[in-house]
Design goal:
- The structure is a single chain.
- Helix content is 35%, strand content 20%.
- The protein is of the alpha/beta class.
- Helix 1 crosses helix 11, helix 3 crosses helix 4 and helix 11 packs antiparallel against helix 12.
- The longest helix is centred in the N-terminal third of the chain and has 14 residues.
Length: 365
Amino acid sequence: MKILYGVQGTGNGHLSRARAMAEAFTDSDLEVDYLFSGRPRERFFDMEPFGNFALRQGLTFVNVDGRVDYLRTVLQNNYLCFVRDVFALDLSSYDLVLTDFEPITAWAGRLRGKTVISMGHQPAFDHAVPVANRDLRTWLVMRLFAPGDVRVGMHWDKFNAPILPPLVDVGPGAVSKLHHKVLVYLPFESQARIHELLRQIPDYDFYVYAPGSAYAQQGNLHLRPTSLEGFRADLHDCAAVVCNAGFELSSECLALGKRLLVKPQGRQMEQASNALALHELGYGAALEELSPARVRNWLDHEKPVPDIRFPDVARAITRWLEDGDFRAQSLASLSDRLWREVRVNTRSVWPRPDPEIHAIQTAGT
């Protein structure tokens, strides 16, 4: 079977899942080509697993100071280029289209009558999962941005739905915890503002990753450019992580047993909903706005760290693709089997109500 795999490049979580899938594909009989869109070529990094991949402009979201700017998103995307790329994409040699929130491959496959499998976190919202800040615009985007005939959602709990556990790619290496080392990844926020905030907590060392940053040390700040190897190394030995409420990095933190504080992007229903889910499951804490006092309070007050073991979802999906049975019953069976393999130490969760997340939990209801 020959597959065209489309990957949205706006967020690194989609790329992380794609790397895990690429590794799983190497042990299969599947022939896979890759198409990426959503960011310029120079902003992609560590792309060796994907060989001679294709790149298109695609569609992306504009973020300003940690919030999605819907007006600029509408005005700055090149829709003529998008439509041209959809109609120009040659799918004649492919048996299947697999898309991780990548719109060109999804729409090209739909228009040409190919089976399109939409895989990732967004399809989980087809089901009754925790939702905060209900927003019709965001819901329509999650349903229509990269549509699929078969929608394979992933989340941190089954929520009585045919969704899969997270597809986690943490890489090799021993896991340790340097008590005062904190990894910070808030790429959509004002970096100057984040640096100023963290300088006011001098008794912790913050390893701050951001696109376009340069290696530098400024007091307790260790500035780093985005990179796979360096980021993984710091993720493996930090004690805590402060990040936006994206699905993939949060999943990696849970798998590695890292304390997790998330700050959802503003006007982003998916991230607000992720923060709510983390709270309801007892897996992490959330703040709608960061402040030195609140971050310090979270760092100083130790709480149990989630101890979760997820199965190898990438290889399970690869085998499912090889079988070629994409009926709803087949997906439900795959979901049931994988969740039976998930191991959660219930003593490691912290289910008591967290007042900091109350506004996220009740907003929009």
